Automatic annotation (TrEMBL):
Keyword annotations from UniProtKB, A to Z: NAD
The keyword NAD is annotated on this UniProt entry: yes
Domain Deacetylase sirtuin-type, residue spans: 1-69
Listed name of the protein: Deacetylase sirtuin-type domain-containing protein
Coiled-coil blocks: none
Organism phylogeny: Bacteria, Pseudomonadati, Pseudomonadota, Gammaproteobacteria, Pseudomonadales
Residues making up the signal peptide according to the UniProt record: none
InterPro entries registered for this protein in UniProt: DHS-like_NAD/FAD-binding_dom, Ssirtuin_cat_dom
Amino acid sequence: MKNCDALISVGTSGVVTPAADLPHIALASGATVIHVNTVDVGAQAANELMLVGRATDVLAKIHESLSTGKNNDNG
């Protein structure tokens, strides 16, 4: 985690350790942390992003955007 540029945290409550510690370690190292969950987990850092939705839907959109190099703001 200390050497990653980005961490995608999918479908976790962020409560149970050791998994709950991973986003904090990544953030402290300067990485961007992207949370994907059906409920807002309270992303608060400047380099932290919250994407609310089902993991299958959100990850498919991320994959599509990365594959095409396009950002689709229309949902």
